[in-house]
Design a protein that fits this description.
Strand order of the largest sheet: 7-6-13-5-12-9-10
Number of strands: 13
Radius of gyration: 20 Å
Shape: globular
Distance between the termini: 26 Å
Length: 241
């Protein structure tokens, strides 16, 4: 256990939410504090709190004003934020995500080779050999913002975003990587695709990942990709954790 001495800022966010801010940058230690506070709030089972939304550097706490007043909740949050922090944070889950790299699944992989000077096989080895923290979800239901991308394969976003990116596309945007859970516009460089549904409203848990999870990609070929798609459709593909 370690003491938490850094300050936290509490700001109102509308008439039924507050934001607990821990810093102003993307940093694993800051994100650890966000998830540690979320865990303490959940453990405390505080009446009136209806939702917790962790982000890179802050925690949004949604509450019912008829049950819990802002000043009262602020005092509770400040007290919980200063408790000793466990060395273990996040959900503890490590999700293994299959990814088919290159070809029509990853049309920007050749551009990444030219930009970085690294060949395709090494790019794939680097990307799939890293564990990525799910800092937060946003933009689309189930869109994961992943930290930990190796700087050797970082690449700026497209100057002109694509109008349509297919569901499941795995991309690189600057120093982050992520997965498009739905077909949408986007400007990240596409290097592959996963056959898994990161968002499915018909599932008991529609969103595959949670903020605080860890993701590790592993390479598959196109035959594996379509086999996994079919198995998932039949409910026969178990998520590897």
């Amino acid at each position: 256990m370690k003491a938490t001495t850094e300050t936290v800022r509490i700001l109102p966010a509308g008439d039924r939410a507050l934001a607990a801010e821990f810093g102003d940058k993307i940093d694993p230690a800051i994100n650890d504090r966000v998830h540690a506070l979320a865990a303490r709030i959940q453990e405390a089972s505080i009446p009136g709190i209806t939702e917790l939304v962790p982000t890179f550097r802050s925690l949004l706490v949604v509450y019912e004003p008829s049950i819990l007043k802002f000043d009262e909740l602020k005092s509770i949050i400040l007290r919980l934020a200063q408790l000793p922090q466990s060395s273990r944070t996040g959900t503890g889950r490590v999700l293994k995500i299959p990814c088919c790299y290159g070809s029509h699944f990853g049309p920007d992989l050749p551009d990444l080779e030219r930009y970085t000077g690294i060949d395709r096989d090494e790019i794939i080895a680097i990307h799939s050999g890293t564990e990525y923290r799910v800092y937060m979800l946003g933009f689309l239901p189930g869109f994961v913002y992943l930290g930990g991308l190796d700087e050797r394969i970082a690449m700026p976003r497209l100057s002109t975003p694509r109008v349509k990116i297919p569901k499941g596309a795995v991309g690189i945007g600057g120093n982050q990587t992520g997965v498009y859970p739905l077909e949408s516009p986007g400007g990240w460089r596409l290097i592959g695709s996963t056959p898994l549904d990161f968002y499915n409203p018909e599932r008991e848990e529609p969103v595959l990942c949670r903020a605080g999870d860890t993701i590790r990609f592993y390479p598959i070929n196109s035959s594996d990709y379509y086999d996994i798609r079919r198995m998932q459709t039949r409910g026969e593909w178990p998520l590897e954790i």
